[in-house]
Specification:
Length: 260
């Protein structure tokens, strides 16, 4: 006995479709070529941001979006940061990656805490090695996976990743279960929904910048090109002063502030 069909309304075009119950949004998108200008990254299902792996069992209103949409842009940036984190973990397992703050069209980052990073003069080699690993991850087209798991199990995973700030935040989650993200077996807790796979992350760069690195984003409206980076020295100095105060006061997260 075949599966029943269910109706969805594609908000991009206003078309009503009958699809097989249990179909994923990714499967539905294959029936709608050129529904977006650039590759589909996700969808709004009844106005809620949803992964393309979502399965449809009941009538829904679906609007697909790409990177030029604000929701798609957030997904792209968050997924790129996760791929960057995965690359650092693979290259330097004992290192700590800090996405310190955003600058114009990029994230200012620091990689520290590992003996195999070498001296400051070795930062060029670090950037090159991490960049090469990111290219490998992109070419492997690994899926971003999501798993709802017991909070206690998730805490054990995060504790092994040497990211104490995330661990402390999760300790105060207040629920029995939590959604965790995985990339190639590497776990993290990221609130933003991910793009389908690393193969979607086609435009980015990793550069040396000041005392750390700059993870560069694509231009949102022409995503096949890198966005123009503009120096903002005054903003950078404000962030640096903030960072020093955070270290002096030992309050890197809102959880630490609440604890004090």
């Amino acid at each position: 006995m075949g599966k029943e069909s269910v109706e969805i309304v594609v908000a991009n075009t206003g078309v009503r479709m009958q699809i097989e119950q249990g179909s994923t949004l990714a499967e539905v998108a294959t029936y709608l070529p050129n529904i977006t200008r650039y590759p589909v990254l996700g969808a709004l299902v009844n106005n809620e941001v949803t992964r393309l792996q979502y399965r449809v069992y009941n009538p829904k209103v679906v609007r697909f979006f790409d990177i030029t949409d604000k929701q798609g842009w957030r997904m792209y940036v968050a997924s790129l940061a996760f791929m960057f984190y995965k690359a650092v973990r693979d290259c330097y397992p004992a290192a700590r990656l800090e996405l310190v703050h955003s600058l114009a069209n990029g994230y200012y980052c620091r990689i520290s805490g590992s003996e195999d990073l070498g001296s400051e003069k070795n930062s060029i080699e670090v950037a090159q090695r991490v960049r090469e690993r990111m290219i490998e991850l992109q070419n492997d087209n690994l899926p971003f996976e999501n798993e709802n798991m017991l909070l206690t199990d998730a805490l054990e995973l995060i504790e092994s990743q040497n990211i104490p700030e995330t661990y402390r935040l999760m300790q105060n989650y207040g629920r029995l279960y939590i959604n965790m993200q995985f990339l190639g077996g590497t776990p993290h807790k990221i609130s933003t929904i991910m793009v389908p796979s690393t193969g979607c992350l086609t435009t980015w760069d990793l550069r040396l910048f000041e005392e750390g690195y700059l993870l560069c984003f694509p231009d949102q409206h022409t995503p096949d090109k890198l966005a123009l980076f503009r120096e903002t020295p005054k903003l950078y100095q404000v962030y640096q002063e903030h960072h020093k105060w955070v270290e002096l006061l030992h309050v890197p997260t809102i959880t630490d502030l609440n604890r004090i």
